[in-house]
Amino acid sequence: MFAILAAAFSALPNVIPKQLMDEYSADNSIIPNPLMLVFVIYVVNSLLFSPIRRTKTKKTSEKTNKTTIMLLVLLGVVEASGTLSYTFGLQETSATNASILVNSETIFAILLGIMIFKEKLSKREVFPFLLIVIGSIIIPIGVDIQHNNWQFSDFMMGDLFVVMAGFFYCLDTFIAKKISDTVKTRHIVHVMSCTGAIMSLFLMLFFEIPFDISLEQVSVMSIVGFLGIGVTMMFFVMALRLIGAVRTVLIYSTTTVFSIVYSAVILSESISILNIISAGTVLFGLIVLRNRISAD
Question: Mind listing the pLDDT tens digit for each residue in 253-262?
Answer without folding.
Answer: 788 889 889 9
